[in-house]
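User: I would dearly like some help making sense of a protein record. I have put the entry right below:
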Amino acid sequence: MGIGTSLFLIAVGAVLKFAVTTSVSGIQLATVGVILMVVGILGLVISLLFLLQRDREVAGGPVVRDRVVDRRVDPY
């Protein structure tokens, strides 16, 4: 789940929790909204942790460059 998906889930959950006043038989939309917001927040935190970890590996890792030196001597 990416950052965009997490933000989308948070937004949909907030709309269901705070803006929808319709009732559906057998489902409480406010509870579904809270669940979506919690899942979205968890996904956002996990996505940001992975993003920060990847940035640390790229920025702090060793730079390896292969250089080939040809040391053949020309006999002429």
